[in-house]
Structure formats: structure tokens, C-alpha cells
Amino acid sequence: MQWRQIKTLFILCFLILDVYLVFQFLEKQQATDIGFLEDKDVTLEQQLKDDDITIENMPEQEVKESFIKVKQKAFSKEERKRLEKMPNQDVMVTNENHLVISQFKEPVPLTNKTTDEQFQKVIQANMLHGEEYRFGDWNKEKNVIYFFQVKNGRPIYYNSSGIIVVYLNEKNEMVLYTQTCLDEAIINSEKKSLIHPVEAVGRLYNSQQIVPGDTVTKMSVGYHTVVPLEDGVQVFLPTWNISVNKEQDFFVNATEGIVFSSDHEEFLATHVSNVLEKIKHDKDISWKKSIVEMLENKMIYLDNRSETD
Question: Which of 155, 167, 258, 266 sits in a 20 to 30 Å window from 138, CA-based?
């Protein structure tokens, strides 16, 4: 009887010892991994420093964010009536009420020094749900301004289902805009820690999209789409928007570090082509001809640029 008790006691002791050793191993492994990551971060920062790549106004606090799911919104009958009453505009709603195309009867002037706050006032005064959009970019070479729709407090970058694209003439006057709108967002309850800003810049550095001497002038978090689901719902992931030399924007998935395509010319060409197709197949209206002519000229310009690049 005593031997059985002693045997059981030995088994329990060895079991406790095994558990203890496993925990010791895991702690050492974790410490090693942390040390490796710290060394890796230091190495990356040193590489950036050696190549004279600087990051201005780098976010210091850890950022956590959720992914969201959103479906494109169809403009309701009431919203279409509001659009028809917009002052100084000829408006058409097409593509099964998903796309607004509007021409200003009298061009709306802007200046090169228009601030973000002034842009906000302009779109709130002239566009439906203007308060839901935020100034994104002014491409002065192509005379186009983008306003990104905001969901969960963050902008959604270059998404054809939630964007206002404003076309300017040679006098920096707004002559035409198109608008699409996303519906209410379904926000995932779990927030995930985003990759460190230095790591996001490192992804661009390793893919040679930033070069020695570059300056990261701004970093902010928004959303970028993944592949749309079959029911038309789009999944948007938190994304670092990295501005380099105040000239070019890059987008890095903020949870997995994947670099998204940032070909704005391709986005604009696709957008203009889609709008042209919708206009040409819609009902005939008196002011459609001038819009088609303007957009076709824009397409010719974009095609010529792609051939020379």
C-alpha cells in the first residue's frame, strides 16, 4: 500500500516538474522572440537613418482599430428629390440610383490656398451628405479633387463606392462632380493592435518604394478594401496612409503589412471610363453632351500619359 502511494507521489512530482520546465522554456522562448524583434526594429531604424530616410510627426501611441463591413448605398427617392433642388446644378442619378453625376451651371471657384476646412464647407454646401466626406487629395496635374467618405471616424481611401470626384477647369473652378455613397458600417467589436509606424515604413523601404533621402511627411490610419463579398458587401481593413515628400501616398495594410497598390491614375481612368459608360446608356438630357466631351478628353489625356510612362 505504501509503495503505491510512493509511486503516485513520484508521478505527481515528475508531472509538476514537467509543467514547470515547459513554462520555463516558454518564458525563455518569449524573451528570445522579444529580443529578436527589438533587434530587428533597431536594425530597421538604423537602416532608415543610414539612408537618410526620416519620419516626421510619427505617431507615438499604440493604435488599435477594427475592420468594418459596408455595402454600397442606393440613393432614396427623398435623397434624389433633394439632389434635384441643389442650387446651381444639373443633376442626374444613374446606375440603379448608386451614382450621382452633377454639372454646375456656373463654375464654383477655388484657390490654390484652399484649406481642408474651406473644402469641407464647399462640399457641405454643394453635395448631398457632404459632412460624411473628407478632403483626400488634389491632383493639380489632372485637375481632379478627391473627397473620401468617412466610416468609423476614418477615411476610406480610393474606393469607387464611397467617393466624391470633383473635376476642375483650367481656372481651378469646379464644373462637374460624381458621387457614390456607402451605407451604414458594421463594425467588428474586436480591435486589433496595428503594426508600428516604423514597420509600415519598413515595408515600403524593403520593396524599394521609398529611396535614400526620402522624408515621410505624414502618417495616418484609414481604411482600404479587400476583395468584395458575393452579396456586394465590402470588407475594409485598417490601413496606414504614408505620405512621402508631400508628393506621393502609399498604403500599407496596418494588421498584416501588405502594401496596397497606389496607382491613382489607374483609379481615375477606371472611374472616368465607368462614368462615361453610365452616362452614354442613360436617358438623353440637354447637358449630357458637354459632360461626355469633357470626360472623353480626360480619358484621352490619361491614355496618352500611360503610353509615355
Answer: 258
